[in-house]
Amino acid sequence: MKRVKLIVAYDGTNYCGWQIQINGLTIEEVLNKYLSELLKEPIAVIGASRTDSGVHAEGNVAVFDTENRMPSDKICFALNHRLPDDVRIIKSEEVAPDYHPRRQNCVKTYEYKIMNRKIEVPTLRLYAHFCYYPLDADRMREAATYLTGEHDFKSFCTPRKQAEETVRNIYSLDVEKAGDLITIRIVGSGFLYNMVRIIAGTLMAVGMGVYPPSYMEEILDARDRNAAGPKAAARGLTLVSLDYEKEPKKEIRGENKEWSYTLSQEEIVSQKKAYLTIHRCRQEDFDRLLIRVVHQAVRNGAERVYVKDEEMSGRILLDKSYGFYNFRSDDENEEWLVTEK
Question: Which residues in the chain belong to E strands, given as ranges?
Fold first, then answer.
């Protein structure tokens, strides 16, 4: 048995998104069907990003397990001969048996394209959202600056489940205009359900003059979906790439007006240890931050996470469970608390 990784590109126009569902054809269903026929065994792919109906992709990722002896790097060529014209495998390769595309640290890049002119161009209608109202790209660009960094993006997602963690980190958010085409390019650690489309819709509202650019900060603070603008149409969105980290970052910093912390991971590989220093954190966000960052360190390979709260002593309770974790005092240094599962 081996595990094979696929880089998948597709035109999402004729599909009801990635994930298999009862109301229409999906990318996952197509891949399962043609892989099963090619390899002469039942195949079920695991996708990295579950794109919505009508959303396109240039570099989505999926894996599957097979006992077939066909070389992994040749599967893409054989499969492309069978797939419909709007789905292609860019690359196939063997990966570790425990490799999971949704349990790896990665950088995701999306682009949202807007055709901003009086009359729609038919050849672009499936790949760009048409907006006849003039958009001020400079205002949109200024508004985008408020969203970069680590924030709670609850206002910019469609709720699916109450317990979903809504903090995400946007590394860059650019708005470029070339002729009549505006491209919003967003790069981040991950995105919530409909998050990119709601950001695009809100930026368009800023470009129309509905909101001032600074209103983006108020939307973030509200943590309420009703505070943000409309969700933009799916056809303008493309998942460009998923770039996976080969090893954990030595240090991760998170900082905004609600919190500031440093996670040191220099000893994760050698000693399975990580150190979290919370410099400051608003009380209502404290437990969530503690659980989220400790879990990130454990997922990255830490067996023990040492935590120090610089702002207030006694906030971490030794008799309280924080998600999967609780804490005890460190025998060697009383400033630190150490996790116990």
Answer: 2-10, 46-47, 56-66, 87-95, 106-116, 129-131, 149-152, 167-178, 181-188, 237-244, 251-255, 259-264, 273-281, 304-309, 326-329, 337-340
Which CATH number applies to 2-95: 2.40.128.20, 3.30.565.10, 3.30.70.580, 3.30.460.10? 3.30.70.580
Q: Which of 141, 144, 147, 111 is nearest to 129 (CA)?
A: 111
Q: Is 275 annotated as a binding residue?
A: no
Q: Same topology for domains 2-95 and 106-242, yes or no?
A: yes
* pLDDT tens per residue, range 263-293: 999 999 999 999 999 999 999 999 999 999 9
Q: What does the pLDDT look like over 44-78, one tens digit per residue?
A: 999 999 999 999 999 999 999 999 999 999 999 99
Q: Rounded to two decimals, what is the model's pTM?
A: 0.94
Residue 331 has pLDDT above 90, yes or no: no
List active site positions: 52
289 backbone dihedrals φ, ψ, rounded to 5°: -60, -45
CATH topology classification for 106-242: Alpha-Beta Plaits (3.30.70)
Within a 13 Å sphere around the CA of 51, how many CA atoms are in the beta-carbon half? 36
Residue-wise pLDDT for 303-318, tens only, equals: 999 999 999 989 999 9
Q: Which neighbouring-strand residues pair with 93? A: 5
Q: What is the pLDDT of residue 334?
A: 75
Q: Where are the domains of the chain?
A: 2-95, 106-242, 251-340
Average pLDDT value for residue range 230-253:
95
